[in-house]
Amino acid sequence: MLRRTFCSLTAGAAAAAAMPSTRRSVGTSDVIRLRDGMSALTAMDQTRGGHGALERAALAGAAEAIGLQQRAASQTIRQRLFSLAAHYTASAAWSCIDARHHDRAQAHLDQALRLAGMAQDPMAQMRVWNSTAMLAHQRGQFEEGIAASQAAQATTTARRDPLFASLAHARTAIGHASCGDRKPALRSLGYAEDALARSEMRPRPPWIGFYGPAELAALTAIVRDLLGQPAHAEAASHRALAALPAELRRNRAMTTVRLAHAQLRQGDTEQACATTGEAFALMAGDPIPGRMRTLIGDFHRGLFTLAPTDRAAREWADRYRTEWSKR
Predict the structure, then answer these.
(1) How far apart are CA 115 and CA 124, in angstroms?
(2) Residues 6+ apart with CB under 8 A from 246
(3) How much is the pLDDT for 87?
(4) What's the whole-number mean pLDDT along residues 124-153?
(5) Contact present, 9 and 60 (Cβ < 8 Å)
(6) Phi, psi of 203 (to 5 degrees)
(7) Which among 139, 137, 172, 136 has a CA at the least distance from the CA of 153?
(8) Residue 72 bridge partners (DSSP)
(9) Which pLDDT score is estimated for 2?
(10) What are the domain boundaries of the chain?
């Protein structure tokens, strides 16, 4: 599926660049085709996580959308194509964030925000600010992450749809928790929970399909962990895993590793080691994305800091260290 989608998007981008201006005008059917390709990339990300082929396929889709807008049948079609280009570019940025390729992610986010402005698309803007907050957190730029998540809150999309507002508040909570600010972090979590409770079922783009009660529980686990509350973090991770759909394989694996972190911080070394084994099993057959590899590395360091002579720790190292480093 990945190879077919990548080849289709790459070929389409090349064809769009080569088409003479006398060819037919571009209309709704082209928009729908590109939107379907975007959905396919989202599904691949949810299963495998960020990787180079996904980034390239997303950039090919963006290039095709930009090439086609020159022959758009109307201004409405042109704006929809710019919107698709913004979303494709945001997908490329997210793939880099998940793989921890920070500089490329930032370049894609800058381009996506520019395209979203040209499209006058607040949904794309909200998506870019959400990813910007995540990238800032990875880089340790916590105040910038808070500013980005607050920019997401201010978008028309977040003001009109409580689901998006909830996600933006949850990102803000992570930013405050990273700064050690307990009260603002918990207050933002409360806003996220209240907004999610007010959200209704309605058609939304596939990229936001990951977010709901399960993902909010997973983000709550991150906040609680950052605030030094491992028992609360463990409980939130269990809630997330009980509700996360099986098809969100990467998300389930990430939450599983975070659960192991919470267990380790409470001194349950044997259980924590067993839990990380479940994460490796979830990702069997695919490389581990950089973001998850970093999280496992943090677990490895914590394991041998807290229990350097523990039998479970030595067995974990013997069984998983090589697999983790190679994948």
Answers:
(1) 9
(2) 252
(3) 96
(4) 97
(5) yes
(6) -65, 130
(7) 172
(8) 26
(9) 44
(10) 245-327
Residue 280 has pLDDT above 50, yes or no: yes
Q: 228: which DSSP letter?
A: T
Q: Which of 218, 200, 296 is nearest to 257 (CA)?
A: 296
Paired tokens of 294? 């970093």
Q: Say which DSSP state 22 is in.
A: T
Cα 118–chain centre separation: 24
State how far the Cα of 34 lies from the Cα of 41, in Å rounded to an integer: 11
Q: Which of 65, 59, 148, 47 is nearest to 104 (CA)?
A: 59
Residue with tokens 């928790």: 177
pTM over 0.70? The answer is yes
Residue where the block lists tokens 């997973």:
218
Q: Are 36 and 9 in contact (CB under 8 A)?
A: no
Taking the C-alpha atoms of residue 113 and residue 189, their distance in angstroms, rounded to an integer, is: 26
User: Above 50 in pLDDT, residue 16?
Assistant: no
Q: Where are the alpha helices (DSSP H) in the chain?
A: 2-18, 28-48, 52-68, 75-99, 102-119, 122-138, 142-154, 156-160, 162-178, 182-198, 213-226, 230-243, 249-265, 269-282, 290-306, 311-326
SS3 sequence of 239-271: HHHHHCCCCCHHHHHHHHHHHHHHHHHCCCHHH
Cβ–Cβ under 8 Å, residues 116 and 109: no
Burial class (CB in 10 A: 0-12, 13-18, 19+), 318: exposed
247 contacts: CB under 8 Å, gap ≥ 6: 43, 46, 47
